[in-house]
Model the fold of this input.
Amino acid sequence: MDTAKADLVIGCDPIVAASKYTLTVMQPGRTYVAMNSHGTPTAAFVTNPNWQFPGGNCESAVTAAVGAELMGAFDAEQVAVQMIGDSIYTNPLMLGFAWQKGRVPLSHAALMRAIELNGVQVDNNKAAFEWGRRCAHDLAAVQALFKAAQVIEFVKKPSLTEMLAKRVDFLTAYQNAAYAKTYQAFVDKVRAVEAPLGKTTLTEAVARYLFKLMAYKDEYEVARLHTDASFHAKVNAMFEGDFKLNYHLAPPLIASKNDKGELQKQKFGPWMLTAFKLLARLKGLRGTPLDVFGRTEERKMERALIDEYKASLEEVLTGLTADNHGLALEIARIPELIKGYGHVKERHLKAARPQWAALMQSFRHPKAAALEQRAA
Done:
């Protein structure tokens, strides 16, 4: 498209809508922009866990390019989820919004016929289009339909017992009852030591982050999740007719590496589901001498992390007091810094280790740590 010649821009992704290329096709007084303001993480989130969605900056950039009177921004994905049940209908909803604003030079009948000819979730796509029209006419009224329900919805925070039960069930399915029992026993030990202090925050942190380490997503777990009946039920509800699933994976034993030595994903066809079904049944081999996947450096690291984390907490529990409880909590939360998979996880672990070591040193030598803080 020529520079500054667009009559309409439907921005289903705000970051793309505010990109340098997209902005060049806009012209003040001419281009109308219908923009979904919902924040969706980009690929930058993979390498930067502290990435923040630049929502306000996106809207400001587009508004500056076309003028406030030609800008229609709202959280279309939220409307799609609340009114139709899935964010996949955001795009037809945005089209309906733009059409109702008089910016799409096609008849309603023509657009409905196009949806019918496409032959995919026809009724839902038509419904999404109509909800988009309603948003263009009276956005506040549409939002009130689900915001009113949210006002009276109270979500009870799960108790520690409920949180533990859920994680024990998950680890039982992940590996077996014995594996889950070791998790339960360790958390119970932390709770017993913390109880005299009249607190449960350390126990809650250990329950959350020991689980995170123990439920590392290896080949067996990927297979189990992809063969779960609820996963396939959700996929089947989203698509009609003939469709096939492809899987993008980077199996450590066979995946190629880039020039940095990082595993690269490759495409596997629907046949992979058969392999998943077989692999899921072999989860009992996890961590045993027969676990061929467990021989990789990544899997060795993940298993070692569980023991290392437990060892740190065992040391903390032997000297836990009201004075160092806050420091113990910081140590328990270290796994929060170890995010991602593969080389991403390895990089985050490398960055977390100095902080982990410093916290343990402060716990072991509180007087020296206090002197250093005063000197700083």
Q: What stands out?
A: Confidence is low (pLDDT under 50) at residues 42-46. Strands lie at 8-11, 32-36, 71-74, 247-249, 266-268. The longest strand covers residues 32-36.
